[in-house]
Each structure stands twice: as C-alpha cells, then as structure tokens.
Specification:
With 318 residues, the chain is an alpha/beta fold. Helices cover 42% and strands 17% of the residues. It has 13 helices and 10 strands. The N and C termini lie close together (10 Å).
Amino acid sequence: MTEFGYTLSSEEFGPTELVDYAVEAEDRGYDFVSVSDHFHPWLESQGESPFVWNTLGAVARATDSVDVGVGVNCPIMRIHPVNVAQAAATTAAMLGDREFFFGVGTGEQLNEHVVGEHWPEHDVRLEMLAEAIDVMRSLWTGEQVSHHGEHYTVENARLFTLPENPPPVVVSAFGEQTAQAAGDLGDGLWSVGPQDDVAEAYESNGGDGPKLAQITVCCAETEDEAVSTAHEYWRQSALSGELNQLLPTPVHFEQATQMVSEEDVREGNTVTDQDPQTHIDLVEQCRDAGYDHIYFHQIGPDQEQFFEFYEEEVLPSF
C-alpha cells in the first residue's frame, strides 16, 4: 500500500507557517509530512531556514495522527551526532506511537561548512555518516556510551529521554553507490522519484525497509505561471552534476543559476504541466519503481493551489 505525504519546505516558509501547513496536511488526509533541514536556503528568494528541531517539536504538538519525517538531516559536521541523537529521540518521544522517519544523508556544503570545517569528498562523508549512525543507535539503547572513532569522540554520554522504539534511520541516496550503502546502513531509503535504479541498488544490498520518494511540483492556474514561479523559487534544481553539494552560499547559487532559463525549468525534473494525468503518471512511475511512501513538494507561496488540485484531480486516482 502506498502512503502519501506533503513536504514542509523550510527553505520557503517560517516555522509557524510550517506548523500550520502540517496541520492542514493532516486535516486533508495525508499520511505523513516531511520537513527539510537546512541552515541556509538555496536561493535568496526562498528566504527562510528555521531550525528543524524546533519546528518538529511544534508539529508533534500541533498534530494528532499524521506521521512525521525529517528529510533529511546531515549528522556529520554542523551538529555532532550525539546532539542529533538526542534531538531525534526527543522528537520521536513526542510523537508517541506515530512513525518518525529519521532521514539522514551526507549533506551539502551550503549547510555544513558554516562551522569552519573542511568539506570532505563524498566517500569520506559516507564513512562519517556510517560512524555517526553507529553512535546514534548506541545512544538510543539508553546505555552509557563512550566512543573513540576515526571521526567522532563520545565520552560517558547517556540519553534519558527516549521513545519506546528507536527511530528508523532512513538513508538518503541519489546514486547507486549511496543506495547500496543505504541498504547496509539504513532502515529505509530516501530519494527523489522516480529513480528505479536507486531503489534496485538499495534492495540489492539487503535493503528491505520503506522507500520514500519526493516529487517536486508547481501547481498554478497555467503552466506558464507554474514555470515562472518554479524559476523564481526553485531553479537550483536545474543545476547539473555536483554543484548542489559543493556550492557554499546562497550567493553562489544565485550566480550559478543565472544560466538557468525558464525553459530549463520547464524541461527539468519539476512538474509544471497542469494536466492531472502528468502528475498521476509520475506517481505511478514511482510506485512501479518500488517506492511505497511518495510525498509532494509544492514550490512557491501558493500552497492552497496544490492542496486543492491534488485533492480534486490527482489523489482520487489512488
């Protein structure tokens, strides 16, 4: 059975608005919400970047039944994994018997370089993530933990506030190498859809947990309006290669995206077509690729346009 979710875009909205949208998503019958975790927005036009753990605590209190995820946190540099483990445990405890999807990944320099540490290459960051996951899982046992590893040191740490069950660690992957690592390290896979090769790589290395895929859309009165909005607020998604992981500040993204045209956005991976069947087909592709949790990121200030369009034209097909 496929579960459907809604993205709380912390690059585009402040914390109070995000909580309000979480409540609305629950009221409209979504199975889960996922909030992004950034220190900076990608672009100046997005304009926000609240601390994700405050937002998650408020969402936990303001909602009653919707499952919640953070998609995704990078526990390797900006915040020590000891502190992330405590934050995730507290959030999971506040949610009670609801599912908390704790998404983790190797991060972007945009967010992690702010503490002044060297930004390692991807293979090193993946090693750091593996060690961080081990530290966090050790702390979630409730036992006193000391750890002297290659990347992290922990001395006599013990978490006293814990959920009944430790949160599942859902590892983010956009390529086959990391997806295989997710199969080994994680309790689930977090990606963007549809990427069947990523899902297959995850499963080929023993991954049998939930598979989450985000679909980015812009619902508007016309396709031209959707393209214009997506270009204004989310054109960095059209950048190719590793730029999204390597550029350090929103100013650099502003400079890099000067070369991104509205036509690039129209032809990219953001759904700007206003034909409901286009959205339905993309959801079907994600399901066919094996993703069982599909959630939607609506670009721009007009979230109500998305809620109405999907409620009336898209989700009834499922």
